[in-house]
């Protein structure tokens, strides 16, 4: 009998390559297998992830989508990175463009909110093939690159981001950032400002983005606050918050979060606004539950937007 429901079997592997150079190793690898109607009940690889260090100066990452094999979307991410002795990093391949604190920091696996902020969901630069230079000097992080659209190689984008951390201690930090992106030969232009402040388990985040798309101006921002009732805090390094989170107690960690989102255009034809309140419970570093309530308060000139409130329940497992 054919399996009519998706069955996910996750295999995580970790290995070392004993060859020259001696420090070469695979730091992470994962294969996701799926069985469904299309595979006639057989287990087939759905996605493949591999990250490795070739030497002290070189590292690489490859992420494939087997479902999109033989298409231009089969490579989710693929790059080669060189770390120079002077602190300059050179990355080439299909990579994430350096834009937005939300996009650079939060993985969906450990994000405080179930849904991404509007600023990241609507205007986010996608992964593209390109060349990026990055450097960390003291409290400043710089990243800039040129990227091309695989579907239309003539559409180039220039994206840059700079962040500054005035102070960072064990329990406190202040983050400031600026990013810009000139896209599709100037037809789309993004400008973003970002700020974050952490005081132990309390974290404030906010971003503003101005987007010019075919001469139409759109503005978007979000304000977010999160607090760990059990005392944990999110790790921060090199201009972004890390995805790792380990509860202090075997009983897990509990976090509350609140966020306000808004996007509108200068012509006052559209406004998307919502407010979210949520509770997250982390059993451990891999598994957590979320329950969020989202209140919509949006409008368009023709009243075509549904303003229904939404209750979301989410279970996440980080494999």
Low-confidence stretches: 1-46
The proportion of residues forming helix, as a percent range, comes to under 10%
The largest β sheet comes out as: 18 strands, antiparallel
Overall strand count: 20
How far apart lie the N and C ends?
29 Å
Q: Enumerate how many helices there are, as a single number.
A: 2
Kindly give the count of domains.
2
User: What's the CATH class label of the largest domain?
Assistant: Mainly Beta
Rough outline = globular
Mean pLDDT: 77
User: By CATH's scheme, which homologous superfamily of the largest domain applies?
Assistant: Porin
Helix/strand/pairing category: mainly beta
Textual characterization of the structure:
With 319 residues, the protein is mostly beta strands. It has two domains: 1-83; 84-317, Porin (Beta Barrel). The chain contains two helices and 20 strands. It has helices spanning 101-105, 118-122; strands at residues 7-16, 25-35, 44-53, 58-65, 75-83, 88-95, 128-137, 140-148, 156-168, 172-183, 188-199, 202-213, 216-228, 236-237, 240-241, 253-265, 270-282, 287-296, 299-300, 310-317. The strands form two sheets. It has an 18-stranded antiparallel sheet that branches. The protein has a two-stranded antiparallel ribbon with strand order 14-15. The radius of gyration is 21 Å and the shape is globular. The two termini are 29 Å apart. The relative contact order is 0.10.
């Amino acid at each position: 009998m054919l399996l009519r429901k998706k069955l996910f079997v996750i295999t995580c592997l970790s290995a070392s390559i004993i060859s020259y150079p001696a420090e070469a190793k695979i730091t992470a690898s994962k294969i996701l297998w799926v069985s469904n109607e299309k595979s006639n009940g057989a287990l087939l690889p759905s996605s493949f992830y591999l990250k490795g260090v070739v030497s002290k100066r070189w590292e690489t990452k490859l992420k494939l989508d087997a479902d999109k094999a033989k298409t231009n979307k089969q490579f989710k991410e693929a790059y080669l990175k060189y770390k120079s002795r002077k602190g300059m990093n050179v990355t080439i391949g299909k990579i994430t463009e350096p834009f937005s604190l939300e996009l650079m920091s939060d993985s969906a696996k450990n994000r405080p909110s179930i849904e991404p902020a509007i600023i990241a969901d609507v205007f986010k630069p996608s992964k593209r093939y390109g060349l990026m230079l990055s450097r960390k000097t003291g409290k400043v992080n710089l990243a800039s690159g040129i990227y091309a659209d695989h579907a239309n190689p003539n559409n180039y984008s220039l994206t840059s981001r700079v962040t500054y951390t005035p102070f960072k201690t064990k329990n406190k930090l202040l983050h400031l950032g600026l990013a810009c992106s000139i896209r599709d030969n100037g037809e789309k232009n993004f400008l973003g400002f970002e700020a974050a402040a952490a005081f132990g388990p309390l974290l404030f985040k906010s971003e503003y983005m101005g987007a010019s798309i075919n001469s139409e101006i759109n503005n978007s921002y979000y304000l977010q606050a999160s607090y760990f009732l059990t005392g944990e805090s999110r790790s921060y390094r090199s201009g972004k918050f890390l995805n790792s989170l380990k509860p202090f107690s075997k009983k897990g960690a509990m976090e509350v979060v609140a966020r306000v989102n808004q996007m509108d255009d200068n012509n006052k034809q559209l406004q998307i606004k919502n407010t979210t309140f949520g509770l997250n419970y982390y059993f451990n570093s891999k598994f957590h539950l979320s329950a969020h309530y989202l209140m919509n308060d949006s409008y368009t000139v023709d009243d075509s937007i549904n303003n229904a409130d939404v209750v979301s329940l989410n279970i996440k497992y980080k494999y």
